[in-house]
Amino acid sequence: MITIVSGTNRKNSVSLHIANQYKGILSELGEESNIVSLEELPEDYLNVALYENIGKNHQFNLLREQMNNAKKLVFIIPEYNGSFPGVLKAFIDGLDRGKALTNKKAALVGISDGDQGAGIALSHITDILNYCGTHVHGYRLRIPGIGNLMTDKVITNPIYIAKMHKQAANFIEF
């Protein structure tokens, strides 16, 4: 099972829409997947699920278990202030690294309104995942100008649809 992580807790985020579209592509390719949306984090996550509270919050434990059970991971990473959202780093910090990340394979999709497609954000998250022992797929998909590529909450630009299909197919074989 491939677990797709929507990398922000922003409600009704573009990241979640892209995660759903990516899930559809994986399904077309015959691969089972599920989505972990950071929208589902407890509101006071930093106070109830980290550090001395790890394992004590039922709502977070459900997300943590999905990550532990994932065969592979796809991270949909929105660009926030030249990097990725801090909530994603806090989420990673609350995981059981040995079960959720170490020796797992991950694909990265960066999205931004700007023209860089979250390239720096993908570099930052790659460093963190490598530190955690995750094997990051070499085809890091960058999708710039995301707002201009979508209609009705999905990417409709044929070039980026083809790129998503290419990455997904390569990732299944990875």
Walk me through this protein's architecture.
With 174 residues, this protein is an alpha/beta fold. Helices cover 41% and strands 19% of the residues. Strands 1, 2, 3, 4, 5 and 6 form a 6-stranded parallel β-sheet that branches. The chain has a two-stranded antiparallel ribbon with strand order 7-8. A hairpin with a 2-residue loop joins strand 7 and strand 8. The longest helix has 16 residues, at 158-173. It is globular, with a radius of gyration of 15 Å. The mean pLDDT is 96.
Gyration radius from CA atoms, angstroms: 15 Å
- Which stretches of 5+ consecutive residues score pLDDT under 50? none
In terms of quaternary structure, the protein is single chain
Mean model confidence by pLDDT: 96
- Strand count: 8
Largest sheet: 6 strands, parallel
Helical segment tally?
A: 7
Termini Cα gap: 14 Å
**Fraction in beta strands:** 15-25%
- Class per helix and strand makeup: alpha/beta
> Which H/E pattern describes the elements?
EHEHHEHHEHEEEEH
Shape: globular
Helix content bin: 40-55%
Topology:
Layout: E1 2-6, H1 14-28, E2 33-37, H2 45-48, H3 58-69, E3 72-78, H4 86-93, H5 97-100, E4 105-111, H6 119-131, E5 135-136, E6 141-143, E7 150-151, E8 154-155, H7 158-173
Parallel strand pairs: 1-2, 1-3, 3-4, 4-5, 4-6
Antiparallel strand pairs: 7-8
